[in-house]
Amino acid sequence: MSDIWSVETKTLATNAEAVMRNGNIYQIANGYMGYRGTLDEYGRSELVAITLAGIFDRVGEAWREPVNAPNGGYTKIAVDGQALSTLTSSVSSHHQTLALRNAIFGRKTSFALGGKRVTIASERFLSAAEPHLGVIRYSISSDRDADIVLETGIDGDIWDLNGPHLPKLSAEMHGDTLVVAGITHEMGKCVAVAESAAIGFGLEHHRVDGNRNLRVVSFKAEAGKTYSFSKYFAVCTAADARDKTVPETAIAVVRMAKAQGFDLCLSAHNEVWAAKWAQSDVIIEGDDEAQHALRYSIFQLLIVAPVDGSGNSIPARALSGQVYKGAVFWDTEMFMFPFFLHTCPQKAAELLRYRIRTLDGARRKALTEGAGFRGAFYAWESQETGDDVCTYFNIGDPLTKRELRTHFRDKQVHISGDVAIAMWEYFKLTGDDSILLEGGAEVILECARFYYSYAYFKKEKNRYEILDVIGPDEYHERVNNNAFTNVVARTTFEIASQTALYLAETHPKAFKDLVQKIAITQELPLFAEAARLLFVPEPNPENGLIEQFDGYFSLRNVPVEELKSQRIHPDEYLGAGQGLAVPTQVIKQADVVMMLSLFKERYPTAIKRANWEYYEPRTEHGSSLSACAYAMVAAEFENLEFAYKYFLKTARLDLDAKYKVYVGTVFMSGSHPAANGGAWMTAVFGFGGVNANAEQVTISPRLYKSWRSLHFKLTYKGDSFDIHITHDSVAVMAEASNQQTRRFCIWGQTALSIPGKRVIIDRAEKVA
Ligand code: IFM
To answer: Is 17 annotated in the active site?
Structure first.
């Protein structure tokens, strides 16, 4: 690592596996689209994809997935009749970079060609200021005179997992602008890409070559001279076109950008990026590795934050491709949302709007799943309508090639509570009730209604139970009284009652309209009763252990590695019907520990430690969501070595890209925004010890030994604070524009943060 603001390599990826992993590591995105980190000349076999947010398509019986746009960034050259590609030509040097400050992907490659050295360099960005726009600067030079043919334009031959989604692409030229457009199968939505380039050299002509719409420029390169041009492409879909057709809309974006030129486009882009980092950077002094990995994690979240007003959310593999159907999981609310809530609440609100927008899908699912339920049962895998795209047979067995029945869709009921909790957290920490009024309150009440209809009242025990579910640990399906799920459900009942109370008091008209609209008046008292009577597995008074679900402690205790050694195939899935982990205590990911991390105020440190120590050796960490929960809880009981180990594991996950790419027969590669969010949470909540609630912000730092300081911004109740933590002190600087004095509790001492003032609290007992 030569610079903590960039990712780079001088090693050229030459095999398919490395090209695929680099595509993830070096991706850029701007919330509207993601562009995999592939080279200019690459095509479908190198997994080139520009994945679009919020537009999906299904071909035949295959999985429905996001649409990839034709590649407007395509450029390839031939020198003296020989096409250049890093994959087939002789490369003498290669340098590839990703700038984290402003999401610019760059490459410089020199080729050795019969005694000539030809160098191409390019940099590209997806504009943070104009979400439809991609901008590229490309240059060519040769140390000897050379005959060069440059082809640049739009390549419609792009990677799809279950495509092609845009059959019968049309290729046109409108003045100086190339256009490739197509219509999706399922919904008949148009996707158009326009491209224009300012090439001031050579002889240009237009050529359509299969699915490629190209401008071809022939020129004689003089030795030592650099030939550069800028290129602009725009992607638009049916959802973006207002008073023009979709292609016309894309053309207008491209022409505007070309008229402005590369430098102006870049400065508009940079300005947005500077504001993003000013709001959300976390500075770790004393540990460059942690700093770099954390910054990369934050970068990953910033590039995929939805465009304001889009009503989109962030899929589990972000915009790095079509894996996981481009679907939104609980990952968003539980792992990514906290980052946005504490640094950029308007993006957090956007994520919640997506759930409000898809409430009807959740209602449909509740009605149709199993015996039929009431309220809102959110999709386990959610696309644009909120209908569940998780299939009942969601994993393929690599041995038999048969599809395995999994119950992620119908039994992972904690998803509704995860959504409801996020709605309420937003209100608590921003003090802004607009999301509740926009539909968030309706979501919360409908989620409570769902749990009430799902819960079972056990008369002889005078308690409600939640039976037949999957908790976060997906290796144990159809279990009863999963501790995590039950606490989530109880919390949902509690916040439903609080929501009703709050609205009735502060917005009586809106409350009246809402209860009438969803006819819920009679049920409100039941939610309060259910919150009181719902059974939640409590810590055993003798050893403090919380049983993950009824009967878990009676399962076979087998060491994780021993269990894994019994696999016949390395990709064999350990859960589902006959999975090796099913009769054992081996769990896929944090479950009880996830609960302890999420509901940290409800459990004392000793209980956290006892359960962490019990469950950690039994956890496979087979999900990218696991290690950060263990890291955060370990930090709470000051096992900082473990906290650090799991922090780095989480923060480096996408950077190292060494994750498994197959689970069963399903291709799972891509980026892991939940882990990125987990890395931020571990730094700020875990090591920083930040815990905000409606009354105050608590800061109980436990910095890792090599960290001299931890420095970050925090947004709380609409006010902004700069927090600087060392081993001995915490300084809180309140922005002058803050509206109110806010209460902080630092190392147990109350500190009032007055607008425009800095308050410093020293640790009473200095660290030795
Ligand atoms: O949501 C997760 C789940 O908890 C474990 N399997 C992968 C999903 C998507 O990241």
So the answer is: no
